[in-house]
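Hi V.,

You were right to ask for the full record rather than a summary. Here it is.
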Amino acid sequence: MMMPELGKYAGAVLSSYAVAIGLIVALIVVSVLRARRVKRDLEEVENRGRGNGTH
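Predicted structure:
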């Protein structure tokens, strides 16, 4: 894959790509961490319900 010639805008274009990729990675990480926390909290609530004899 060849990179197109960006000329004098190469720095701006490449830094924009880097920022966009960084934000996407950050969103993925935050989403995965939140999903783990929510799953753990849900399991805790379900286990509490079982302990009370409601299930």
